[in-house]
Protein 1
Amino acid sequence: MSSEPAKSASLDDTAHLEVLGYQENFNRSMSLWANFALGFTYLSPLVGVYSLFAVALSVGGPPSIFWIFIVGAGQLLVSLVFGEVVSQYPIHGGIYPWARRLWGRRYAWMAAWVYIWAMIVTITAVAQYGSGFLGSLFSIPSTPLTTLVLTLALLLVALALNFTGTKTMARVAQIGLAAELVGVIGVGLYLLIFQRKQPFSIFFDTMGVEGNGSYVTAFLGAALAGLFLFYGFEACGDVAEEVARPAIRIPRAMMMTILVGGVSALFSFGGYVLAAPDLPAIVSGKDTDPIPSILESTLGPVGAKIFLVVAVTAFISCVLSLQAAASRLLYSFARDGMIPGHRWLSKVTPNTKIPANALIVACTVPALISVLVFFNEAILNSVTAFAVLGIYVAFQMVVLASLRQRFKGWKPAGPFSLGRAGIIVNIVALAYGLFAMWLLIQPGATGNFFTDWIVLIGLAVVLGTGLIYLFSARPDRLSHAPAGDAIAVAEAIRARTGANRTVESESAPTP
């Protein structure tokens, strides 16, 4: 690690914000643990594994578990890049302000536009999936109407909890973290130790999923097993102005989210594979929802019911974390005057110190999409297909902007620094991101053009509408907030830090 950037550690949170051109508007009540809990419940390995377990096995067989290692390593590199950025820019909004300060207004507008829609769609999808668990918990028959009602209930419960303030949000996130750890690591370990029905060598057995072709093709097709899991860590930075000592704590929280999330996913995915009573049926695609039967056969009816309670808790926490992250991004976007209705969206409540109006939007738009899904269930797959790719695109826009600034001479000035290794990590993180996006845009093989290319079509629609608005309304001209100032800010932080150190050394008592 380089020692020079560490000088900025002496800047207090208020002074750091002042250097960046902002004033304190929020309560800094989030600890490192609470910030980590927010990112972890957003990442939610329980949701990710449950959603893609059957698909991953039917496409790539048991070896698809290795995507958790591959993607986890790649996203850890991305989190290191983000860590240096947020350490210099510990401000609300994450992706948007990072892209703005590293590149410029129009570039940041597009990054935020893609990311906002990806987050909103993700909120909708998680609430939809969670409604199934909630219905099972109370033995409510699954119909389009009950799914809609339960989805709206999850969205409203999360909104109500978010409205009570940052402390409640942090507590619920920590409860969700505990639920996630019990639901994925606890259950996974139990299945591995006491309910194992398959040998460990099964993870090297393709079980014939490749057919007459190459297994490489099948393995690449199962990449979503990992790609869907490892995002959410950036949410730690979305609430930066509500975290004490964010320049130090948020980089740690992001890395903890990746590492603990990866271990949790491995235990969960591996446990389900080893405990599956009829693994060939899952791999062949005959059993498309195998986890309930695995839990029923291993935990019994009572144990399965307890797991449902844990799962519902995790889903509520996940929706809450998503709403919180999306609202802070909207607030950051609006604070700089870059979005329609920016004055309304940038308001902060005087008592609870939350962006209430932005929270309302982060709940209302997913609710409206859920109503559309009620009338046409097929829309859910269409509107969610681009979400993962959209998030990866937004991530890599920040990674690319960071690398561009490094080539221009930027040396990150936050207390978290990779030193000389930073540029190497940045290059490898970008290469990984491009590879991940290439995997995500691969077409299906149904023969239906719209179905096979839905991921790219969805992204093209979002990019197209964003570009039309950007070059017609020109929101970038309405905003005068700082942009493209990474080098200047780094120099200002170092100058301020040196002055602070001089004062500290002069005022310190002589031993």
Protein 2
Amino acid sequence: MSSSAMPDIPVPLTNLKFQYTKIFINNEWHNSVSGKKFPVFNPATEEKLCEVEEGDKEDVDKAVKAARQAFQIGSPWRTMDASERGQLINKLADLIERDRLLLATMESMNGGKLFSNAYLMDLGGCIRTLRYCAGWADKIHGRTIPMDGNFFTYTRSEPIGVCGQIIPWNFPLVMLIWKIGPALSCGNTVVVKPAEQTPLTALHVASLIKEVGKMIKEAAGKSNLKRVTLELGGKSPCIVFADADLDAAVEFAHHGLFYHQGQCCIAASRLFVEESIYNEFVRKSVERAKKYVLGNPLTPGVNQGPQIDKEQYEKILDLIESGKKEGAKLECGGGPWGNKGYFIQPTVFSNVTDEMRIAKEEIFGPVQQIMKFKSLDDVIKRANNTLYGLSAGIFTKDIDKAITVSSALQSGTVWVNCYGVLSAHCPFGGFKMSGNGRELGEYGLHEYTEIKTVTIKISQKNS
């Protein structure tokens, strides 16, 4: 998108009050049964924002009981027309759009996310995803099947029931919507556990669900699930061939790693560059990383915020030290930044080899590692030599090479001459240890429905 086409970004709200800090069950706010609370912090300043009620087993039981009750045959939720269900989900999208500035400010304060990214990318994505799911609500249907014999056979797509949904801290609002949008569209009820580091936007959305005013259930809690879809971690390969548009590859690979301080499951964290362009690619990547301005993510002009918390911050610094000790060349960064908040300098390593910790472990931080390859077969083998398989990138002007490599890579998503492009229309999920099942798109709806086959004996079929 060109700068001239960028929408205006408002100024973040100041003196934000966090009024929703309780557990939301059966359209009502509750204190925890135990009386326990936990603090929620701003990772840029380390200040406490508020305290949130801490859900425990008894709270979970209450939430699941309420969600089961709402799913009973004959309940208002089960007897509601599918088109009305879609209208309610669209209404929730309207309310999120209304509160977009508030939610973006909250997401930035609680999660360390750049305000501009929260406002444009995260909130924009949430609204589009909900509207996409709303459109599916009255289009989830079965088929008639020409079974042998005098039978009439059809299938029904039925909701599976109560869905337990656990939200990660790196994209708390986006992941909440990815979970509840398709689940509710299919007619399920949900029990949601936001991440303890970033619960505030989920709790605000609960208040909007109450405002919508229908039988949609949410709560902070855990559930034992009989059926599981998991979108887990990754150590995603990004392969740059010598015939690629070098500047475009540098920029996409850079954003593929450094977006949201590297705290993305799809981060392009194993960067393979063909030998003949390796040195130039490293040079341009280092120049790009050095342009960052670090600081409070609510401040205009800042383009890198803090890591989520102290634990993650220390883990990343430890992995950076391992890279230095194991012989990778530190090109820039390599340490903490500032005297307050969990900031880490944008870091680039070259001369990285496959056996180093930084090449094998998911860092989840602003640490780019650039490796060299010589041949097509070699890089495919190395790219697939991992327990993960969430995503991958390929940069080449050769369409035959792009198709060959994308077919060979063991990844749920492969981007060619781009990286990190996601849409509500397209399925997302991983191979191997990066999870099972899919989210988004029509495939994502399948995770929230059961197929029932109904066969009726008839006197004579007329086929």
Protein 3
Amino acid sequence: MIEAVGLTKRYGAKTAVYNLSFQVRPGAVTGFLGPNGSGKSTTMRMILGLDRPTAGRVTIGGHDFRNLPNAPRQVGALLDAKAVHGGRSARNHLLSLAQLAGIPEARVDEVLGVVGLQGVARKRSKGFSLGMGQRLGIAAALLGDPQVLLFDEPVNGLDPEGILWVRNLMKMLASEGRTVFVSSHLMSEMALTADHLIVIGRGQLMADMSITDFISANSADFARVRVPDETPEQREKLTTTLTEAGGQVMPEPDGALRVTGLALPRISDLAHESDVRLWELSPHQASLEEAYMRMTQGAVDYRSTADQKAHLQQQPPPYAGYGQQPGYAPPPQQPVADVPQQGWYAPPPPGQNPYAAAQAPAAPAQAPAPAQAPTDAPAAAPVAAAPAPAAPAEAPADLTKRDTSEDPR
């Protein structure tokens, strides 16, 4: 059992933990919750003798951690998954810990199998992902088969399968009569894992109770009631009836009614007596996250605010061309009817020189030719005025044909 009495820790002028008292009993998973900067990590460090309390005392089984005989065989902990020499393999890291604590070498291979790292046991830990590092840290905590276990954010970086494995592992260890103390910010996971909660805020105790009692004490249960959408008069009638019976009725954004102060059977009876047909009558219980946010909203040290300069940001240009880079000026767009589109390249008509458009002067396109040529002008004059088109033999036809012999596509 872990017991803290009047635990206080100051760092200069800052008080990280103040007069904190609690007990972590065996046989249950105890969750340790609190906002960032509330003193959770500092408390765990004092439990493990890494920091000395300014005042008060914390013991494990009635003894200070420093006075425990062969502490690694009695207490296992994961506080920092990165506290590993990157040049050592996973097996050598565990083997060095085992030799320091007098643990048989066979136990190293056992815990590697428990955490699923037997396939990478010979690889250096510096190449491990965050989730693999977490598994290695859990293996180190289990190495001495201890009766007391402390975990700080054990599911950080794990995939869904790993999170489920950690959850089942915690429950199994607690069912064996061990003391399991877990700190986490994942409320949904803590709701599925923990049996008891210890909540602190700004270094002081805020709650020490079961998870069921914590949710009930920090949330307001209500009933959701819905009537047919096409009968607003029945909705108003039911609202009046429930209010006169002592209930509090609030409209929901989706058209339902939130009713507090009345039990579900009483709401059903009142609706029946008022001849109101119900489409929905369901209880709603707050989640652990809702209860936690409601309790700790006044103990949060770090709050985000709206960016006061957000309105100064430049809006992106309306043109969203493929491969467009910042500062790139897009070409002027032309109507689709004037420019045939086929991806980014419009092939010329059959038999036409693809470079003729670039060589032809722009004047004839802007000034249309007269409908009838003057009779006194030679017939060959208009032809002589325009450049003669290149002969088909001289056209660079080979440039319009793509050699696909080495094209990877």
Protein 4
Amino acid sequence: MATVDYDSSADPEMDLTSDEELEREAEGFKEQGNVYYVKKDYAEAFNFYTKAIDLCPKNASYYGNRAATLMMLSRYREALEDSQQAVRLDDTFMKGHMREGKCHLLLGNAMAATRCFQKVQELEPESSQVQQELKNAESILEFERLAEISFEKRDFRMVVFCMDRALESASACHRFKVLKAECLALLGRYPEAQSVASDILRMDSTNGDALYVRGLCLYYEDCIDKAVQFFVQALRMAPDHEKARLACRNAKALKAKKEEGNKAFKEGSFEEAYDLYSEALTIDPNNIKTNAKLYCNRATVGSKLNKLEQAIEDCTKAIKLDETYIKAYLRRAQCYMDTEQYEEAVRDYEKVYQTEKTKEHKNLLKNAQLELKKSKRKDYYKVLGVDKNATEDEIKKAYRKRALMHHPDRHSGASAEVQKEEEKKFKEVGEAFTVLSDPKKKSRYDSGHDLEDDDMNMDFDANNIFKAFFGGPGGFSFEGNSSSGPGNFFFQFG
């Protein structure tokens, strides 16, 4: 009699029993996952939901539960995949659609989120939660639209504002964070921009946009070599990243042109250096810190070329770009000193000394204050029309010329107003000569002291000074004449 092999796997009743056992075991894992979820032990909850899925991979609720757990762990992309799998298995699974929409929203895809929430609305028309989520999605789309317009207008503050509002609902959106970071960099808020970009790179080290922003911050902080490294890395991760390509090109061009200008300056080719710095300034108007240095460099060249007013203007532009730029204040202050704008020089040196209280800065300030004080007195050198380094003979010759020019008797026929003005100038000439021809008085005057405060005899009689200077054989002789006009002198040529 033939023996028949019995295949137990073909027994339908045993297959049914096996499936039921798997489902019961899976339900057990799901219940354990629920317990851990309530305890907020999301890592353990995730493990048990995963075990349930492994046993019953076609149960939509298991994927939905694991998606909820992943959302609590901030693993939104994985949560999105589980939510999508859940609704593929059961298109009527309302919680699955809601979680998919929430994941899309958190990741910044408001359009996809809207479609999911509309599906929820079909399944549960009275849901107040879905109404709010639809409003959130609509708000994000509006902030995106406004941010795009503002970026084109270079209103970077508005872009930051829009992205902050959008991130309230889309907290996991790297795209919004990168745009915010880029605008923070363009506003000169580099530490904030670096912080945002670094947070993204900690989660995704290959994010080309975040690498670009890191490079942009370094570029704008004048760390050009390091910036280029980040731009190159960004292009390696995203070869079509046009912003990184442009920034890399600008960085290299700016560095090269600046170095050419520095080389020309060191070689004494000031005109060439001036032109090179001017060319460098046209490369990237957004690079505030480097452009501030370029303006200051050009101001230094300008002062060498005696373009002092242009140099002052360049320093002012540098300071406008970077209010903390001490070198620009010092350069402008020196130009103010050279053009005898002492009040402005004092103001700049005060700013410098308040920032950096060094002995050198203190001395510069004191010197500017002294020159300011001196400038408010009569400038006896200007009165005589001589240089501050004039010799004794030059001072005498100048006095002779000016005294004869302004002597009242020479203007006796002029109007009363002219006579009064010439008499005043005649007295000033005598006063200037008295001080500058006396070594002691001249020394005190040159050092900025008020001669009247030093108990020095500062009583001037211009006529007596004139008579003493011109009196004697071969000179001019004067005779009193009450009708001869102011000063009661008249010329009698011998």
